[in-house]
Design a protein that fits this description.
The chain is an alpha+beta fold. The protein has 11 helices and 15 strands. The strands form 5 sheets. A 6-stranded mixed sheet has the order 12-13-14-4-5-15, with helices on both faces. Strand 1 and strand 2 form a beta hairpin.
Length: about 375
């Protein structure tokens, strides 16, 4: 007890007296932790800014080094969807090729004149895809089948049948050389041709290609070189049409590329009947293939009507045609079930539908030899 009482007694100190000071110290430390990085970054910016003038002066003093490292870039197009970037850097050329996807919006197919007129709504017992059809016996003139046969429509390359007939009847020298010129190039439909401008062929070979392969430049060159020129030839085409009774037919040029070349199934049946009497037109129009020598090249041309090669058909004359305004067209003279028949199919919908229509008619005639079908019957005269 004595020892305990001998120790000095210290006064009590409360912790509440130091709280304000501790709070100020904490705030100061937080401020330093936030402000120090910002100050450090600002210092770096100032140092960089101070160095720029010096760097600029070095570049100005030594331009040759900068010239060597300079990059040049240009863009080269390699087609509709290929882009190449050519970059030159440090004496090296780097080419980067990039393919870009191209989105093409398909345009709706153009309607033919027959579709616009509603002719495809017409029904027939054979369910033909051609809006206009006519089948008749060439010898008796009996109409076996007719469908919208009075409708006046574009006839496309069926026009070349009249072109070939007039060239044959004119008795022009078939060995006379004719040169394809720029005037023969299609500016109506911009169709392609294997006969380049400057190509020279005998008239007979051009006639062969026009009737067999429906060669547009060949047909145009035949009309252009007709005595009196192209205008005279078109006049003769229309005069011949009137002479054989084609009262609803009009020609404006010899190829059929113009939709203004128009006729009816009835009129075309008359034309087929007359043209089938011309041995040269018959022979050339039913030729399956033909080769022509052009310079050092040999070009193979084929018929546009695959029925010509078919063993099921005995075709005496034929001509096909197509432009969007006319649809798929076909005229023929063929022997079916022992009868010489004239067939006309216009404005057929579908690439092979005109051929299918001809096959339907052939099978129908073979199984129903004496049962004519009429949807708009009429007797063909002439």
């Amino acid at each position: 007890m004595a020892e305990a009482s001998a120790l000095p007694v210290l006064p009590r100190v409360s912790s509440q007296r130091y709280l304000p000071a501790l709070r100020l110290l904490a705030v100061a430390l937080c401020a330093v932790s936030f402000l120090t990085p910002a100050a450090h970054a600002a210092g770096k910016k100032q140092q960089a800014a101070a160095k720029k003038p010096a760097a600029a002066s070095k570049v100005a003093a030594k331009p040759t080094k900068a010239t060597k490292t300079r990059t040049e870039e240009r863009v080269v197009r390699g087609g509709r969807n290929v882009v190449a970037t050519v970059r030159k850097s440090g004496g090296k050329t780097v080419v980067a090729v990039q393919r870009r996807s191209v989105v093409r919006v398909a345009e709706p197919p153009r309607q033919s004149f027959g579709q616009i007129a509603g002719l495809h709504n017409s029904q027939d017992p054979l369910d033909l895809k051609s809006s206009v059809a006519l089948v008749m016996d060439q010898d008796t003139r009996e109409v076996l089948l007719s469908k919208n046969d009075h409708a006046v429509l574009p006839i496309a390359s069926i026009t070349k049948l009249m072109t070939g007939l007039l060239i044959s009847e004119a008795k022009l020298p078939m060995d006379e050389p004719i040169t394809i010129t720029q005037d023969d190039v299609d500016t109506e439909k911009f169709s392609r041709s294997r006969l380049a401008v400057g190509t020279t062929l005998p008239r007979g070979e051009l006639l062969h290609l026009a009737l067999m392969s429906s060669e547009n430049r060949a047909a145009h060159a035949l009309g252009r070189t007709y005595p009196g020129g192209l205008a005279t030839f078109v006049s003769v085409m229309n005069a011949k049409a009137r002479m054989i009774g084609m009262k609803d037919t009009r020609y404006v040029e010899p190829t059929g590329l113009s939709s203004s070349n128009q006729s009816t199934a009835q009129d075309l049946a008359m034309l087929v009947a007359v043209a089938s009497q011309d041995s040269l037109v018959r022979s050339l129009s039913t030729s399956p293939e033909y080769q022509v020598e052009i310079g050092n090249r040999t070009l193979q041309f084929n018929t546009t009507n695959r029925l010509v090669r078919s063993p099921d058909w005995d075709i005496g004359l034929q001509k096909t045609g197509y432009i969007s305004e006319a649809g798929q067209c076909l005229v023929m003279q063929a022997r079916v079930a022992g009868r010489k028949l004239i067939m006309v199919f216009l404005d057929s919908a579908g690439k092979f539908s005109r051929i299918a229509d001809a096959e339907r008619v052939r099978r129908w005639v073979e199984s129903n030899r004496f049962a004519p079908v009429h949807t708009a019957s009429s007797q063909i005269s002439g």
